[in-house]
Design brief:
The chain contains 12 helices and 14 strands. The chain is an alpha/beta fold and 341 residues long. The protein has 2 domains: 1-104 and 236-246 and 281-328, no CATH class; 115-159 and 168-225, no CATH class. A 7-stranded mixed beta sheet has the order 3-2-1-4-7-6-8, with helices on both faces. The longest helix is centred in the first third of the chain and has 19 residues, at 19-37.
Length: 341
Amino acid sequence: MKIVHSWIPVKGINKYDDQKWFYTMTLLSVLASKQSFGNIHLVTTKDGKKDIEKLKIPYDSISTELEGKQFTPRNYSLGKLDAHLVQDEPYLHIDNDTFLFESRIIPEWKRFSFGFPDVNYPLTMESVNYLYETYINPYNSVKEYFDNKFFHETAFEIIPNCSIMGGNDIDTIKSVYKEIGDLFEYDSEGFLKKTKYTSHLLEQFLFFPMAEAITKDSKSQVFNNSNWINENCHIWSQNIPLRLESGKCLIHGEHLCDYNFINKFYKGFDTWNYDSNLKLLVDNWFGGFCHLGDLSRDVVIRSLFYEKLKKYYDYEESMNEIQKQYENTQAWETSLFSTLI
């Protein structure tokens, strides 16, 4: 299956602390995809293409369909939506912090494919607050843009995390994201003014109810329930692959090791994942894939995945170019675990 990255070089759009880590993480994502699926392609702008070619990050192709598009940190996912619109064969769009460590056969009859449910049940207070802040409250704030029946009767039993998003039914995917993009453009200032989490709402929250609404077999009702989604989707994981919480490291829900859940200041960085047992992650493949998300901000996690890049992939040529561009050595490039007990 075709694997796709998209990237928009806009000031303020990179949520990571430093560009050097962003490109290193991107390199690992690229090499993992090439090893597992044999290909990866980039959709970007002309400036983005120049930057990537200068760093010799080995994409199979780089196209510039995002040239001329206007994006900000508040609506960055619209670039990803546009990247979906230019696909013409079954594909998976993955984020730069997503790593496909093992290949998978995705059946042709599975119309859609995504990473994992963004909200897991049963709900804790933490997940309830996340659900309302990220999805429910933003959706309520723009309800006037939706049909009354659609707004009030659609169930949101599964919200996809689009760290991986794509599938075999490319016509429906493109139709959905085209309609969502048009909805935003209808009153972009209104969307940005009324909701903080515009990108989450557009890319993830609305996809499945709108996908079912526009398909011929949806009849007159929009359900978007878990049965419909499970019948139509290949879900890479029912749980977040890598989870660090409550003093434990979990891989697909299975206990890997304990760690000290104590924030420490180490080599110029705050870290909350400071434990030598985490070295096991260098040789762990997370059930086939991993989406780092906010964990990518942690210096220890960065160091572990940098070690994985060096140990398992042909990284030298591209990493040498990254080192030339960003000469200052970062903490995650040093041997963090050499002195830990």
